[in-house]
Amino acid sequence: MKVNVDLSLMDMPGQLIRALEPISANNGNVIGVIHDHEAIVGGRITVNVTFEVHSDLALENILATWKENDVIMIKMDAVFESYPLQYLLVGDISSKEIESLTHGMESMEGLASMDIRITGSLTSGSRAAMVTGRVTRHGSLETVEQFFRQHADNGGYMLIRGLE
To answer: What is the pLDDT of residues 8-20, one digit of tens each?
Structure first.
């Protein structure tokens, strides 16, 4: 799991290393560190650290070590990977079908973002819709695939997946 934390450290030499060592000691991997030494409040500075750990136990050990070493955790967020999706829909796609696709996608679990761009004639039903987005779980890609295949089969339009 990827974790992003804001830490408050004493403004003294060696404190950054003292905050990073528990990550390494628990088989974690530091991905990024943002250290703003200009903003000192109460003799402490804020450092943002993003790292990976392989278990909840490792994360708990890191947090316990920070507490023992007077490293104050201000904020912690999990960083989730996301997976891209991209579909091109071509054919007689009605406005009602676009609305149905939008509502169906919005109700899907794991959808992080979605963008639909439509081109085509206003007088005929012939349109193309480019759907791009991201999901937070790899397994959600299959659900999205089934959703679009079912709509394309029922709607009688062509579906092209993954143009990138």
So the answer is: 999 999 999 999 9
